[in-house]
Each structure stands twice: as C-alpha cells, then as structure tokens.
Amino acid sequence: MMILEAKDIKKSYGNRFNRTEVLKGIDMNIEKGEFVSIMGASGSGKTTLLNVLSSIDRVSSGHIQIEGADITQMKDKQLAHFRKNDLGFIFQEYNLLDTLTVKENILLPLSIRNMKKDEVDRQFERVAGELGIHELSGKYPNEISGGQQQRTSAARAFIHQPKIIFADEPTGALDSKSASNLLKKLQQMNVTSLSTIMMVTHDATAASYSGRVIFLKDGLVYSTLRRGGRPQEEFYKEIMNTQSVLGGVGVES
Ligand SMILES: Nc1ncnc2c1ncn2[C@@H]1O[C@H](COP(=O)(O)OP(=O)(O)O)[C@@H](O)[C@H]1O
Ligand SMILES: [Mg+2]
User: Fold this and answer.
1) Which overall architecture, per CATH, does domain 30-58+74-246 show?
2) 3-state secondary structure string, 160-221?
3) How far is the CA of 182 from the centre of ligand 2 (A)?
4) Domain residue spans in the chain?
5) Which parts form a coiled-coil structure per UniProt (predicted)?
6) Model confidence over 101-156: pLDDT tens digits?
C-alpha cells in the first residue's frame, strides 16, 4: 500500500522579480513500512523536499497525498492538527525541552490526546524498551549525552505511532558510534513497528541502513537505489559510487 504519493512537486523561493526554483518537478511514491533515504549535494533541495512532504512548508505547485489525504489542499489549522497527530519528526538538533525530563519530553505528543494513563504507560514502555531509554527517563536533557538526547527525540517521534517519521540529518551532530546506534534503532523500529521512515542524510553509511536511496540533483530526482536482499556493505559501496558520480560528497552546510 502506498502511504505517500507526491506528484510534480515544485517549490520556489523569492519574489516575482527574483525567484529561485529549488524543486523543479519531483514525483515520489513511498510504500507503507519503507525506510527511505534522501541524498544529494549540499543545496540540492533535500531539506526543502522533506519540509514540503512533511507539511512544515507549502509547495509552490503539485500535490502530496498521505494515506489518500491531499495535504497541499489543507487549511493551516487542519494541517497543524494532521502534523501533530499523524507525523513524527527527528531533527539534527534534538529539539528537546530543557525544563522537562526525558520521559516528559517523550510523552509530549500524547498530551494533546485524551489518553488513559494505562495506555500512556504502555506506549512509553514500548518506545523506551526499543530505544533503550529506561535508565534515562528521570534525567534532564543537559544531564545526558548527544546520542542519548537523539534517542530521546526518536522515542518522542515514535510515541504516538505516526503514519510517517521524517528525519532531517538525525545523525548529523553525533559521533560515529552514537550514529550507528541510533540508525540500528531506527532500522529496528522500522521492522518491528512497521513505521515508515523518510530520512535526509549526506552520509552514505547512514543511508546504507535504509532500504532505498533517492538522490536529488538540481531540484530533480537523479536516481534511485534499492538495497534488495543485499548485504549492507554492498549497498553502502553502491551509494558511495553514485555519490561520487554526483559530486559534492560529504560537504554539508
Ligand atoms: N527559506 C528559503 N528562502 C530562500 N532560499 C532558500 C530557503 N530555504 C532554502 N533555500 C535555498 O534552496 C536551496 C536548497 O536548500 P536546502 O533544501 O536546504 O538544501 P539541502 O538540504 O539539500 O542542503 C539552497 O540554494 C538554499 O539556499
Ligand atoms: Mg538540509
């Protein structure tokens, strides 16, 4: 089943005298339960694409359907509601609230719901178990490492069982050990909870944890790689090759 269908997405910035077209007509179909990476050189439009797909930003033209609902046609209020209820987000900067504990941060997305305490506890146990949060739950963000903070923000993204998780460079601020730890957890969540994940990254290692990599170039889809049943190492090499053909390897602003 298709969870996200984007048709001829265009996005420009600027005014009518000076416009820059960042996305020039992107089509994209994401299956329910996929883990997809979006790659491309710095400035190729990855963040812009993720932002319009996740309703943080509006398209200039084109249509985006998430489980059949066209988010480009929704009013701001409806969109805000949809975003809170049906989507989960992980950013490079963990975006945790310093005055709340780890557990309180994770439970935030449930606060808008009328959920029984039993059910809240059950959901917390589920994500805390999968992401290794238990020993952190009473601590504050400034008392834990960057890797632990990002696992907390991942738990927050998954707590309300969103339709899609959008992650923009989630490992961008992490050392390689914390990065691979987080990516393994995301991969595991993708399998165990059948979550759909779309992740922007400029890192071939990170992308090799996903099942499909979509490369952007100059605002268009340049190519797509699928892992299939291959070993991760082999997929990584193919991603590296495509990245070197594309240019702009490894440099991210
Ligand atoms: N709000 C904005 N206003 C004007 N230009 C923007 C804005 N956001 C992004 N851009 C431009 O769009 C292009 C793509 O940016 P971005 O999507 O952030 O690329 P990436 O994430 O691939 O590095 C860049 O040239 C950037 O300067
Ligand atoms: Mg970006």
Assistant:
1) 3-Layer(aba) Sandwich (3.40)
2) CCCCEEEEECCCCCCCHHHHHHHHHHHHHHHHHCCCEEEEECCCHHHHCCCCEEEEEECCEE
3) 19
4) 30-58+74-246
5) none
6) 999 999 999 987 888 999 999 999 999 999 999 999 999 999 999 999 999 999 99
